[in-house]
Amino acid sequence: MTEEAIITDEMRAVIGKEAEPLTVEVDKTAIRWFARAVGHTDLVFYDEAYAKSKGHRSIICPPGFLGHAIHTPDKPTNIVGNSVKRPPAIPGLKLMRLLNGGTEFEYYGEDICAGDTLKSVSKIADLRERTGGLGRMLILTTESNFFNAEGKLVATERGTGIMY
Amino acid sequence: MADQVYFEDVNVGDEIPKLVKNCTTQQLVMWAAGSGDMYQIHYDKDIAAGNGLPGVIVHGALKNAFLGQLLHDWIGEKGQIKKYNCQYRGMDVPAQDIICRGVVTAKRQEDGKSLVDLDIWTEKPDGEKTSPGKATVILPSRG
């Protein structure tokens, strides 16, 4: 029996296309919640006066935190994670279940602090098919670049999603 | 926080101080809110079972963030994380240790910066690596 390919030409056409930029807010309370959820003990993620004494503008983002996209009912954010910063939709995709396959963060030496507003631009970097323990899978690689108010690239997040 | 580590203090093959985590389901809910990932397989047993999982599982991205803490706590306030990643190869569950570890694989200079490459991973108490990855950090130099 020949199985139908998951990836169609129509899907392949979205690879590399950038989605509309999203505005991402880096909020003080959100940083603290993220740091608490991880179990961070460094006060640089919690105490503004302490963070300033260490030369930062405010409390800083812990590794892996790049703020939250702004949710409004007419422009909802993605419920399966801020990490999937609304890449372009994949036309005709029938697989519904999603597992997170991996994450990479790259930084470029700039502080990302509470009060910052970032612009996030995402794209689907790659689509691949694989057969594994979960049957036929679609491996989706996304890449999101984050720019600060001066337009400087401050971080890149690369994610791998496994759809099955 | 430990004392500041310097580039000169580090050797290839060194293991960095490990970090041991053990998630409650409450921590997973905190992570859902903190990260914005509301996927139900991490807090709703029935939905997890409906997805063919043994029960609720620890978020992959939380394990990634644990590895971020492992690096942050090691490099000290003068260090910087340049890049780190991990793959989610195996599932972790609440109430079981998640041991975060790292080993130095290379030391190099690039654009006047002192870089250290590491293999990083999380493992279960039986040693199974569930989230293997790589990292590059910038350490201060004694000059």
Strand order of the largest sheet of chain A: 2-1-4-5-6-3
Share of helix among residues of chain B? 10-25%
- What's the pLDDT, averaged over the residues of chain A? 86
User: Which chain pair shows the most residues in contact?
Assistant: A-B, 40 and 38 residues
Based on CA atoms alone, the radius of gyration of chain B comes out at: 17 Å
Order of helices and strands of chain A: HEHHEEEEE
Q: Which percent band covers the strand fraction of chain A?
A: 25-35%
CATH topology name of chain A, in short, is Thiol Ester Dehydrase, Chain A
Number of strands of chain B: 5
- Average pLDDT figure of chain B: 95
Write down the secondary-structure element order of chain B: EHHHEEEE
Outline type of chain A: elongated
Write the layout of secondary structure elements.
The complex is a heterodimer of chains A (164) and B (143).
Chain A: H1 9-12, E1 22-25, H2 28-38, H3 48-53, E2 68-69, E3 98-107, E4 117-132, E5 135-147, E6 153-163
Antiparallel strand pairs in A: 1-2, 1-4, 3-6, 4-5, 5-6
Chain B: E1 19-22, H1 25-35, H2 45-50, H3 60-75, E2 80-87, E3 97-110, E4 113-123, E5 133-138
Antiparallel strand pairs in B: 1-3, 2-5, 3-4, 4-5
